[in-house]
Design a protein that fits this description.
The two termini are 23 Å apart. The chain contains 19 helices and no strands. The longest helix has 34 residues. The chain has two domains: 207 residues, Up-down Bundle (Growth Hormone, Chain: A), CATH 1.20.1250; 200 residues, MFS general substrate transporter like domains (Growth Hormone, Chain: A, Up-down Bundle).
Length: 443
């Protein structure tokens, strides 16, 4: 082992730079936090509904339509939000997203108490609509940050960790909101859970920059690691660029596969608790605990899958490396879904459901990294199209599952998920993404 003191001064400086925590990871920590808090704010109202609905005089049907206002605006504003984000730049765009998200979440807490009225419905509807519009740009803009700050060969890891953040936010929301409600009421719970976003916005504006070269903390070594990345975009993304993306066969195939794969995403997200309580006969408290386990499994799997995607691309080349995880993990998702419905033990069903969702989320980094590689100069718009397809899958899957669950046809629900997962994997055989330019350094 070499003695650092015996090394020449330039060599010691290079070694120190190699050990230095890259500024990109501090910037990414903010992006991770935006995803985490964004999911707390979008799902917190569903937990608060237990106390919120009686006080406001809302029915579950009315509340369902109010929640759907978020999903619809979130889905159909992906591309417009990404184009605005591209125009503003990631620094200003994420700050605006954070401010509007916090304001919209808090607005629901300002609704006057009493019997349901037109005012109550309009305020809550507008709040959910604004929340969906604001958050529609969150992950496309985050992809723009990743494209600028991370070497190409680390895009999968960064995207996977972003998904880890949102699942940790999902798992944290029920106990957090429930604890705040138990002590201070549902209004305080919604406001208090939004305050950290305001602090995050201040930190982001003070620390982040759109380009690494503009940041005073970025070293020459870190800039050299980004030498293989696509050049910064110096113009607005126009209609012609969007039309070209829409006609790109590779983006169409990846988006269609993501559309199919997201059936499982929404199955577990919205119906896991219902399945465990109504079909597997868990008590409410026990069901709530076990229903959080698939989210934790997904959080771990997303980060691991992103890292594995990068390693496979390095070893096998981009074209083959991007295909491996979807071709292996998505059929495994289908197998574990079938086993979820087939096993007799309720606890075994929980384990199978965790494995199914973990396999499903292993592929998240691959989907997003593949889209970024196909459209390296239109990352925000390209990933917005991807996420539009994924959420359209949710728009269709959610009422379909609801109709089948009403008749307790869970075997069919899981079989449908298994079939769609396999079909999503098969589509990857037709996805061909060329190797990126060599020379992008590792993180």
């Amino acid at each position: 082992m070499h003695d650092p003191a015996a090394l020449p001064e330039p060599t010691r400086a290079a070694a120190a730079a190699g050990r230095h925590l890259r500024t990109r990871w501090r910037v990414f920590a903010c992006v991770f936090a935006f995803g985490f808090l964004g999911y707390v704010q979008r799902t917190g109202v569903a937990v608060a509904a237990e106390h919120m609905l009686p006080e406001l005089g809302l029915t579950k049907t009315q509340f369902g339509w109010l929640l759907n206002a978020f999903l619809m605006s979130y889905t159909f504003c992906q591309l417009p939000g990404a184009l605005v984000g591209q125009h503003l730049g990631a620094r200003r765009a994420l700050a605006l997203i954070g401010l509007v998200t916090a304001a919209a979440a808090m607005a629901s807490a300002a609704v006057p108490a009493g019997p349901a009225s037109l005012l109550v419905l309009v305020v809550v509807f507008a709040a959910r609509l604004c929340l969906g519009i604001a958050q529609s740009a969150l992950f496309p803009v985050a992809s723009g940050v990743i494209e600028s700050w991370f070497p190409v060969r680390r895009w999968g890891l960064a995207q996977g960790l972003t998904v880890t953040g949102l699942w940790l936010g999902s798992a944290s929301t029920p106990p957090l909101i429930a604890w705040l409600m138990s002590g201070w009421g549902w209004r305080t719970a919604l406001v208090a859970s939004s305050l950290p976003t305001l602090a995050l916005v201040l930190l982001w504006v003070a620390y982040a920059r759109d380009r690494p070269a503009e940041h005073p903390g970025v070293t020459a070594a870190e800039l050299a690691e980004l030498a293989g990345n696509p050049p910064p975009v110096e113009r607005r993304i126009g209609v012609a660029d969007v039309w070209r993306l829409l006609r790109d066969r590779r983006i169409a195939l990846v988006t269609l596969s993501y559309f199919l794969m997201n059936y499982v995403f929404y199955l577990v997200t919205f119906w896991c608790f219902v399945y465990l309580v109504e079909e597997r006969r868990f008590a409410l408290l026990e069901g709530g605990v076990f229903a959080s386990l698939p989210f934790l499994a997904a959080a771990a799997a997303a980060g691991l899958g992103g890292r594995a995607c990068d390693q496979l691309c390095e070893r096998l080349g981009t074209r083959r490396g991007l295909r491996v995880l979807p071709l292996v993990a998505l059929p495994a998702t289908g197998l574990f879904l079938l086993l979820t419905g087939a096993v007799t033990s309720a606890y075994a069903a929980v384990a199978m459901l965790c494995l199914a969702f973990a396999c499903n989320e292993l592929t998240e980094g691959t989907y997003w990294a593949a889209t970024m590689r196909v459209a390296p100069t239109e990352v925000m718009a390209g990933t917005a199209l991807l996420n539009t397809g994924g959420n359209l899958g949710g728009v269709i899957a959610t009422p379909t599952i609801a109709a089948l669950a009403t008749d307790h046809r869970w075997t069919l629900i899981f079989a449908l998920g298994a079939g769609l997962s396999v079909l999503a994997a098969v589509l990857w055989l037709a996805v061909s993404v060329d190797d990126e330019r060599r020379g992008a350094a590792t993180a």
